[in-house]
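User: My advisor, Dr. K., asked me to get a structural model of this assembly before our group meeting. I'm new to this, so sorry if the format is off. These are the inputs:
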Amino acid sequence: MTRYSAFAIAKQAMRHHMGWDRAWASPSPKSHYDVVIVGAGGHGLATAYWLGRKHGITNVAVIEKGWLGGGNTGRNTTIIRSNYLQDPSAALYEKSRSLFETMSQDLNYNVMFSPRGVLMLAQTEHEKRGYLRTAHANMLQGVETRWIGPQEVKRICPIMNIDGPRYPVLGGLWQERAGTARHDAVAWGYARACSDMGMDIIEQCEVTGVTRDGDKVTGLSTTRGEIGCGKLGIVVAGHSGRLAEMAGFRLPVESVPLQALVSEPIKPCMDIVVMANTVHGYMSQSDKGEMVIGGGTDSFNGYHQRGSFHHIEETVRALVETFPMISRLKMLRHWGGIVDMTGDRSPILSKTPVGNCFINCGWGTGGFKATPGSGWAFAELMAKGHSPLTAEFGMERFREGRFIDESVAAGVAH
Amino acid sequence: MLRLHCPNCGVDCDETELSAGGEAHLTRFGPGSEDDDFESYLFMRKNPKGVHFERWRHVMGCGKWFHAARNTVSLRVYGTYPAQVTAPPEALLAEIDAVEPGWRNKEEA
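Assistant: The format is fine. Below is the predicted structure of the whole assembly, which you can bring to the meeting.
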C-alpha cells in the first residue's frame, strides 16, 4: 500500500497522478476463511480492521451484496456524538467518538473528522429536564457535555430563532468534541487498511444461505460460490432479520425507512450540528455548503429505501420555525435507508443461539457515530468470546428484561 | 403516499390519517406464560421483506382498527380486512398467490 502523504502527492503530481494504486483489492472468494463478516458497511469493515489490528486475525473476508459502503454508511447524516443517558451506551459511544479523534492517522486516510460540536435543543420543559439529567449522567460517565442556556445557544448558532412561538429554545445539551466525519471515507479508509492486512473484500456477493453442521455455522452459500468459515459475523443493519432467518434464529428487530435530505449549497452559515428532537429534525452544513437535514422514520415496517413523503414536509416545516433563513432554500435530493430498530432502541452485539455465529445489529437510526467503537468491541467479542463493552448488549436482554432503554432517553433522533 | 381502504367506514385514507399498529395475528401471552412465548409475543417479529399482514387504526377518521396486507418492498397493498379475525381471509390469500407466486414458501423458509 502506498502511504498517502504530502510527499506522495508531490511525487504523483510529477506523473500526472497516473501512479496511484487501487485503494483495496477485489479478489475472488477463497474456499475458506477463519472469519467471514457479512456486510461491508462501516461496522463490518471496522470489525474486520480491529480483528486484524488488535487480535492478529487476518484470514478474513468481508462480503457485500452491493457495493462497499452503499447501504446506511452512505446514507446517514454523519453525526458523531456520545451524550447518551445509560452507562453501557455512553461507554460504547464514547469509545467510538474517541476512536474518531485519531482515525485519520490510524488509517492513513483522511476521514475529515470535524469535532465542531453537537447541540441538542431543548424545546419543551420535559426535554429540558431530560437533558439536564443526561448532562449529569454524562458527568459521572466521563463524557464531556454540559447544559447551556438559550443565550449561549444563540451565541453559538446565531442563525437560530430562539423565541418560538411554538417551540422556543429553552437551552441545549452541548457536546463540544462531537461533530461529523466524511461517512464514505470511513468505509473506504477501513477497506484500504483491511485490504493492506491481506483481508479479502468481496463486493457484489450476496449471501443465499448459511451452512450449518449441527448447531454450528460452517460456511455460507453465496452468489459467488460456497465460502467456508470458522466464525461468522453478521453486520447487515436493515437486513439482519433475513440473515438471522438463514442462520436459523430470530431477532427482536423491525426494519423501517429513515429519511434525510440536503439543500442546495449556500455560504457557510452554521458551524455546528443541531438536533431538535421535539420536532424530529436535525441539521448541519456540509463542507460543500449543503444543509444536511435528517428526518423521522416511517411508522410502519418497510424495506423501500425512500420513506413516506409527508415526513419531509413535517421535518422541514418544524425546522423553519427554529431556522427561519432556510425557508426559501431549495432541497436538492432526498433518500432513505433501512434501519433496524430494537425494542429498547439500543443495538445488539451478541453471540447467537447458533454456534460460531455472532451478530451486530439494531443500531436503529444512529449507527454511524458508533462505527469504530462497534467494530472495536465486536471484534473483541468475536475473537475472545466476550468484551466488556458488549456485555450489556446481548440479545438475551429482551428475554431477561434488562433493557438499555434509550428510547425514552433519546427520543427519535438517536 | 400509502393509501389504505378502511373496511369499517369505507373511506380510502391517506397514511397521515392512520396509525400503524405493527404485525397482525399475534397470539397474546400474558403473565404466567413461558419465557420463550412471552419474549416472542413482546419482541420477536417476522419483519418480512415482502408480504406483511399488519394492524392499522383509522385514528383521524372512524377511530377503529383494521387489518391490511401490504408488500414491505413495493408498498403494494393487496387488500384490507376487518380486525375481528385471527387470520387473513382465504380470498385475500388467493389474490396474493396470484400476484406474488411463491410468497408462502418465503414466509416458511
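One thing worth pointing out at the meeting: Residues 125-141 of chain A form the longest helix (17 residues).

User: Perfect, thanks a lot.
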